[in-house]
Every structure is written in C-alpha cells, then in structure tokens.
Design a protein that fits this description.
This protein is mostly beta strands and 312 residues long. It has one domain: AttH-like fold, CATH 2.40.370. The chain contains one helix and 20 strands. The strands form two sheets. Strands 1, 2, 3, 4, 5, 6, 7, 8, 9, 10, 11 and 12 form a twelve-stranded antiparallel sheet that branches. The termini are far apart.
Length: 312
C-alpha cells in the first residue's frame, strides 16, 4: 500500500480539491523536455493531465512534440488505481514507488512517445503548506531534487535519459477563480550537492516577484530560503527570456542565480491556470546547470497583461 504523500490523500468534500504528481525530465542533447503530470479531482470523481513533451520546434498544444492531456475523465473509485506500491493511471502511465519519498519508476507507452525512467532522490523531501492568497494553491506541496535515469523513445528512436532534475507533489483545494494568481517557479539542479528552488508571488508586479518558499543546496548542505526575489525579462511573445534571482537561506548564505531560456512551451493546465515553461541554463556561484523558468498565471490576469501592458 502506498504511504502518505505517495498515494491520494483523503479530501474534505471540497469540489476544488486537487492532487497532482509531476515527474519531469530532460534530454538536453536534443532539447527535449518531458512532463509526466497526472492530476485528480477526487471530490468530483474526475481525473486529467497526462504526458507532454516539447523541443525547440513547437511550443503550443498543436505544435509541440507530444500532447496527450485530458481535462475531465470519470475516475470512479480511486482505490482501483492502486495495486500495492504501484499507481496505475487510466491512460497508461504507471508509477512504481520503489522506496517511499526516495525512488520511483515511471513508465508510459504511446506510438509517438514512450518512456521508462527512474527518479532517485538526491535530497530529503521539502514539504510546504504555505498558500498563495486565499487559493491554498500550496496547501500541500513537495519539491525534491534528484537524479533521473532511463530512456525515452521519440517516434522510433530511443534516447538515454541521465539528468539531475526535480519532482513535485501537490494536494489541496485548487480553485479556478483565483483571479489574481501569478506565481514564479524557478529551479536548477547540478547534483545532490548544488541546487536551488525559488517559488515566488508575482501578483503585485508582472516581472518582479518575492519569495514564497524554496531551498538552497550548496556543498551538500541544504537549507530553506528565508528571503528572496526574482526579476524576469520576456521574449516578444511574452514568454520568459531570462531571470535573475537574489536570495538568502536560513544559514545566512546568499544566492545569486542567472537563468536563460533555451526552449519553451505554453499551456493551460486547468481552466484557472496558464503556464509558460522554459528549459533554462542557470549559473549560480561556480555552478552551471539546467533548470526551468516557469511563469504561471490565472488566464484572465495573463490576458489582461499581454493585451494591455505588454503589447501596449
């Protein structure tokens, strides 16, 4: 039986209750980013999400490399998804919990894309319960850096996967009417010894944001961030182009990180959430590593920004 945080949590009947598993990885040699992102609204008896992949050749739902994403499929009794330590999802995603909170095998088979990867944690779980405004977007949230190995098939060609990346888990109410929501999610992982994550609230200014939560790993020592901010620049279409982070952790260590977008994709993950995700190259201290620039908005807020402020 799956342990706490690896299986679905009990809900309180709130129709906005939401759970998601996120297992991403990259193959930088071919500019490939893959998201395995199944989600559940168990109080409504629905599931959705799926598997997305993109490279530098397309960044919309209809031009990206792979897009098998669902919105509102009937779930039924969620207990039928669990078989011992395995979560079997309706569209063929299989998540095996090899060691709770530490190691997971993820498999998926499709004519256009297949994968068999293992995530092995490089650091302990980072559990947060800090909400964004009244949305409770992070009522329950896990972020964890790790090492992803395995292989991915793009069309008929297999590629090795060997990257340092991050995974997350989220649960709790996720409302679609959080009209002021604008969150930044910036991360890079060089190894288990050097990594960072900064999650920010950007609701007050579109391209400058302040710390909600995060961590710094330096020299193998991890500590939570206590203060920080991020400033981004944008491409002509509004996608993130670059980011500069300044932050301080609980040990008094300072972080300055500079990230540059390499590839991007734009997606509306739920009715109340639009996301720009960009594969990025980061420099922090003496370290250079891959990571992401994620710029997440309520669609109505982003629409107003892009039509009135950005394109004015």
């Amino acid at each position: 039986m799956l342990e706490l945080h690896d299986g679905l949590h009990p809900h309180d009947g709130d129709p906005a209750w939401f759970e998601a598993f996120w297992f991403p990885f990259i193959v930088p040699e071919i500019g490939l980013t893959v998201y395995v992102y199944p989600w559940f609204r168990t109080a409504l008896g629905l599931w959705g999400g799926g598997v997305l992949a993109w490279d530098g050749k397309g960044h919309t739902a209809w031009t990206m490399l792979h897009n098998e994403y669902r919105w509102a499929e009937p779930l039924g009794d969620p207990s039928h998804l669990v078989d011992g330590d395995t979560l079997n999802l309706p569209q063929g995603v299989r998540i095996d919990c090899l060691k709770p909170g530490t190691a997971y095998r993820v498999r998926y088979e499709h004519e256009a894309l297949a994968l068999d990867i293992t995530f092995t944690a490089a650091r302990e779980l980072n559990v947060s319960t800090r909400a964004v405004g009244d949305s409770k977007l992070f009522a329950g949230h896990i972020d964890q850096p790790g090492h992803v190995t395995g292989r991915v098939r793009v069309g008929g060609e297999w590629h090795a996967v060997d990257c340092h990346w991050i995974r997350d888990r989220s649960w709790g109410p996720r409302r679609n009417d959080n009209l002021n929501m604008h969150v930044g999610y910036y991360h890079a992982t060089a190894s288990g010894d050097d990594a960072f994550l900064l999650v920010t609230d950007s609701s007050a200014a579109p391209d400058r944001s302040t710390l909600l939560m995060g961590y710094l790993v330096r020299g193998g020592v991890q500590a939570p961030l206590t203060a920080g901010s991020a400033a981004i620049t944008r491409q002509a279409d509004g996608a993130p182009a670059s980011c500069v982070i300044t932050a301080t952790d609980e040990l008094g260590r300072e972080l300055r990180a500079e990230g540059e977008s390499l590839t991007k994709f734009a997606y509306q993950l739920q009715p109340g959430m639009f996301n720009w995700s960009a594969l990025a190259r980061w420099r922090f201290g003496e370290v250079s590593a891959y990571g992401e620039l994620q710029d997440t908005w309520h669609p109505d807020k982003y629409r107003q920004f892009i039509r009135t402020e950005w394109q004015a």
